[in-house]
Write a structure and sequence with these properties.
The protein has 277 residues and is mainly beta. It has helices at 9-13, 17-24; strands spanning 2-4, 25-26, 35-40, 45-50, 57-58, 74-80, 85-89, 92-96, 101-104, 112-114, 125-131, 139-141, 148-151, 160-166, 177-183, 189-190, 195-196, 200-207, 215-221, 224-230, 234-238, 245-248, 253-260, 269-270. The chain has a seven-stranded mixed beta sheet, with no helix packed on it. The protein has a seven-stranded antiparallel beta sheet with strand order 2-21-18-23-15-14-13.
Length: 277
């Protein structure tokens, strides 16, 4: 499991492109028949990926967690962005179609990511895990069960649909908030108008981005913005003090996830576009 420590706004404002990618880009976690893990010390969130193509993949228990099982003191949200697959936990199997979500509460064990029957078109599991102080039940939610919220417009190139899975009015959790956003064809901007929320960090995972295209993800303080060019199946760590929005060379989707002291989805500190520098 990779491990990354926090960076302050002052440090970040002086970073070059290579340093920004080293500290905030998450890449290489999604490899055939492997599980990849990265622990960020922003709210001790674990970002993970699993691509079970030919065999089941057991969720490991990294020594850095100092636990008997990975989820002894943690909760986890899993979203599949590939072909149908299954996740097993506590002796029970859960089928996940594309864009379906599964929540695993604290104390869950025997977690396995299982391949589907689509051959080379295997499942692509993206997951987040945050510390948990209470046990909530294991719950699955299909994309069709999530209430869609439509935002933006074609005129501003950001017409999109938000699907909220793990949040105050959806799947219950201790601190994890998670869902996904799909941009319509012809739309490329995400999370505009920009915002911050110093009560919690956030991570974005970009998917459905065609080969050869990129999302230019903006981060940093509103008056000290930086950008990262991200490819399909790459994620980015967003500190609580940082804006997090982007523009792609094509439409795409992204999974957003948050951890921290507040689960209120709409609790944002808005930043107007003219404030960005």
């Amino acid at each position: 499991m990779q491990e990354r420590f926090q960076q302050s706004p002052a440090e970040t404002s002086r970073m070059n492109t290579d340093q920004l990618r080293e500290h905030f880009r998450v890449s290489g976690l999604w490899k055939r028949d492997e599980i990849g893990l990265l622990l960020t010390h922003y709210d001790r969130l674990v970002i993970g990926g699993a691509l079970p193509m030919t065999r089941p993949l057991d969720l490991p228990n990294p020594d850095a967690l100092k636990a008997t099982h990975f989820l002894d003191r943690r909760e986890m949200g899993i979203i599949n962005v590939g072909a149908p697959g299954e996740v097993e936990a506590n002796g029970q199997k859960f089928a996940l179609e594309k864009h379906d979500c599964l929540y695993l509460g604290r104390g869950s064990s025997g977690v396995q990511f299982l391949p589907g029957s689509a051959g080379e078109e295997g499942p692509v599991f993206y997951f987040l895990s945050a510390p948990a102080h209470h046990t909530y039940p294991v719950t699955s939610m299909r994309k069709s069960e999530a209430t869609p919220v439509k935002l933006g417009s074609i005129a501003t190139s950001n017409q999109r649909t938000i699907y909220k899975y793990i949040h105050l009015d959806g799947i219950k959790s201790c601190q994890l908030v998670m869902g996904l956003t799909i941009l319509d064809p012809g739309s490329v901007w995400n999370s505009v108008p920009p915002h911050t929320h110093t009560r919690r960090m956030e991570a974005y995972f970009y998917f459905n981005l065609p080969e050869g295209h990129r999302v230019f993800h903006f981060m940093g303080e509103p008056a000290q913005t930086r950008h990262l060019a991200l490819a399909n199946h790459e994620a980015v760590i967003s500190p609580p003090w940082s804006v997090h929005f982007g523009c792609g060379t094509s439409n795409y989707g992204f999974i957003w996830g948050m951890a921290g002291e507040n689960q209120e989805f709409s609790d944002m500190d808005q930043v107007t576009i003219p404030e960005l520098l």
